[in-house]
Amino acid sequence: xxxxxxxxxxxxxxxxxxxxxxxxxxxxxxxxxxxxxxxxxxxxxxxxxxxxxxxxxxxxxxxxxxxxxxxxxxxxxxxxxxxxxxxxxxxxxxxxxxxxxxxxxxxxxxxxxxxxxxxxxxxxxxxxxxxxxxxxxxxxxxxxxxxxxxxxxxxxxxxxxxxxxxxxxxxxxxxxxxxxxxxxxxxxxxxxxxxxxxxxxxxxxxxxxxxxxxxxxxxxxxxxxxxxxxxxxxxxxxxxxxxxxxxxxxxxxxxxxxxxxxxxxxxxxxxxxxxxxxxxxxxxxxxxxxx
Amino acid sequence: xxxxxxxxxxxxxxxxxxxxxxxxxxxxxxxxxxxxxxxxxxxxxxxxxxxxxxxxxxxxxxxxxxxxxxxxxxxxxxxxxxxxxxxxxxxxxxxxxxxxxxxxxxxxxxxxxxxxxxxxxxxxxxxxxxxxxxxxxxxxxxxxxxxxxxxxxxxxxxxxxxxxxxxxxxxxxxxxxxxxxxxxxxxxxxxxxxxxxxxxxxxxxxxxxxxxxxxxxxxxxxxxxxxxxxxxxxxxxxxxxxxxxxxxxxxxxxxxxxxxxxxxxxxxxxxxxxxxxxxxx
Amino acid sequence: xxxxxxxxxxxxxxxxxxxxxxxxxxxxxxxxxxxxxxxxxxxxxxxxxxxxxxxxxxxxxxxxxxxxxxxxxxxxxxxxxxxxxxxxxxxxxxxxxxxxxxxxxxxxxxxxxxxxxxxxxxxxxxxxxxxxxxxxxxxxxxxxxxxxxxxxxxxxxxxxxxxxxxxxxxxxxxxxxxxxxxxxxxxxxxxxxxxxxxxxxxxxxxxxxxxxxxxxxxxxxxxxxxxxxxxxxxxxxxxxxxxxxxxxxxxxxxxxxxxxxxxxxxxxxxxxxxxxxxxxxxxxxxxxxxxxxxxxxxxxxxxxxxxxxxxxxxxxxxxxxxxxxxxxxxxxxxxxxxxxxxxxxxxxxxxxxxxxxxxxxxxxxxxxxx
Lengths: 291, 281, 370
Description:
The complex is a heterotrimer of chains A (about 290), B (about 280) and C (about 375).
Chain A (H helix, E strand, L loop, with lengths): L26 H28 L3 H8 L2 H34 L5 H7 L2 H4 L2 H12 L6 H4 L10 H26 L2 H9 L4 H30 L2 H6 L10 H10 L3 H33 L3
Helix pairs in contact in A: 1-13, 3-8, 3-10, 6-8, 8-10, 10-13, 12-13
Chain B lengths: L20 H28 L4 H8 L2 H34 L5 H13 L2 H12 L6 H7 L7 H12 L1 H14 L2 H8 L4 H30 L2 H7 L9 H10 L3 H30 L1
Helix pairs in contact in B: 1-13, 2-13, 3-7, 3-8, 3-10, 3-12, 5-7, 5-11, 7-10, 7-11, 8-10, 9-10, 10-13, 12-13
Chain C lengths: L10 H9 L5 E10 L2 E11 L4 E5 L6 H9 L6 E6 L2 E2 L5 H4 L1 E4 L11 H10 L9 H14 L15 H13 L5 E5 L7 H18 L2 E6 L2 H7 L2 E6 L2 E6 L1 H6 L4 H6 L4 E8 L2 E4 L2 E4 L7 E7 L4 E5 L7 E10 L2 E8 L3 E8 H7 L6 E6 L3 E3 L2
Parallel strand pairs in C: 3-8, 3-9, 6-7, 7-8
Antiparallel strand pairs in C: 1-2, 1-4, 4-5, 9-10, 11-12, 11-14, 12-13, 14-20, 15-19, 16-17, 16-19, 17-18
Helix pairs in contact in C: 4-5, 4-6, 5-6
């Protein structure tokens, strides 16, 4: 039972050895395909867009994106997305709560329905909401006389945004709520805490990162939403026009550099939101410390 | 987007499960959800059928609308398989190997989720359109991509690329590579290993992702608005056709077309439920 | 602990090994990094055809990494691995024809037991693949051999842990491997099943005659089963020898501590020896003068009636049963409390009770500078 004597006779004249890096096959193929596809389908168009936007001189660029009309679209889109997200954050949390913690008839149905805004084409949502909320629509006819104009005004935009981004908060909060152990709450009760204390000190902190994550995703989605919003918005320049629509109008007017500049602004906001969501998720990892 | 979930624990010692609070919360949630989600869906069918079944059928069978249906289905038939292929390749590369830049790759794969469809369409316009990066080259070669069905395919590929990839990455990450390592040690080639060991394990996640991808392709509006040119009877997908009819004040027609899409969405949800159940077992 | 197996391969064993097509394994200076972490730092090892070798060490010692390098699941930064003289590193895991049993078995959950076992034969390229009927027959024969006959149609989820382990083994053996590698084969099982399967595995190995390496963190298991034990720590081999060697003649403090129970005492080395509880013992070769640690096995701390031999005085603090022996806790003057292991006969002869005054003397001590 020798230990480490190396006997030259044992090692044959080795043929040119292929040093592999991994046991499983297919790295070259899968990575290559992925990189090729991403480059062709995703990166190339975005690069083209940025190039087009870059073809404007800085002052031209600034003129386009700071025009009165453009700025009013920013204000409208941002504020609507904010209202919609706040509404969805509350409703979404409520729905996640009742879906994970209570048994009731139709719970499974409700759970499946949550994904409907995700599966339904945005244009369909758009026309349906418009028809419901306009002056002679099923709901609008009750609200209009009260002075609440919904369709063709900002409230309509907010509702359309809320509709399409509803699933985000629910679906990010749900798994976290599910993983909370019953025993933790039972222990808390035994130690003398009341419901509100348990919620605010134990449950809420655990859920917070996921909640913020979902809210950020909802916000990002609302910022970019087009199909559902464009029917109900009314699209009056400087009043009820979202940035995405202005971009499209610029294209139809053949003002390509202008369109590119606006699209670049929307793209930049997407990147900012992407960064925010990632930062929250990193925070969540540190906070939760799960492997 | 949704997750498999376990049965809830029985109520009682949990927070906010008192006899008043519980029904209040449930009731509020259900009512609000019914209003927010149920009403629009109901409105679609109500409006579509408001002029009677005959008018409904007639609206759907309009040649332009039928063509739009065909175009939408075609787009799905082209885009979904390609994105399944991409999803498998991406998930395999990311979950089975270590390499620098993995985080970057993952971020790139998820990028389309964060980008507005209008931006996607505009980007393609500036790539293949007459005034785009490849515009002059394509014109010289006599090829037109923009405002044809090819542009619709490409823009749809962009918008729906993450769906399958993300589901597969999640699942394959959780499953680990031990089974595949075992297969390789037992002598399986890469192809056989994938077919006999990997594929059966990811089957449901694959179906789930494909179904979501399909729903999104069929419903895509923003990106396709920019690149299709919206030529009636030629490059109108069903969502664009819905827009067209609605703007023409042909409400019954618009909602008839919309109802087809809604039915597809509902079927998508059913398949999703079914696949989800199998995926978590 | 005792290893009644012969320490060397008998002629019988060697002949069986040859008949089995078993080859030897040579590992030369293998080093493996994971990022900044050095999992293996230049490790060399030889396994003869038909030998059963245990890779023993705590978690993070590199034992599983070494096994995976041999299997082809990891590729080292430097070093060589040879199977019967052939360069294994130029072969993929697929080409090496090793039998590998994963710690958690990695059974294909969507396939029946029979299909799992036959998998290695099913995936052979066209020309080499046996007909379906033969595959099924061989799978069944193997299942009989691992005492799972009749369970062919079951699925892994329907089997117990011990049964799954045997399916994994049968599956690995189905491809007629030249070498068998087992990663913590009993790690996931409960104690009683573990003991039964240990014996069974040794018998199976003797029957098969394949060079076998198994990874474990359980020193009892290694000492009981293996022909040779290789102790690893932090990516390096601390000692490589027979179970007897490793237990009775540990070469480093780590090996002494890891194999078997130890009592530790601080001592001072002078000219290569130190006094431990009144008796002088040689220190490990090369130990410099100065502070060092002495290790005693509990059964090497002998207890005598007070004053009957030279040695420090002690008082009995407590007596508890410990398997076939008795654990006697002693308070030793100037040192503190030490646990001695005493056989029942010895205990009866001494007629010890708690509170008795006794004299202790060590029979043997290992001295290392840590």
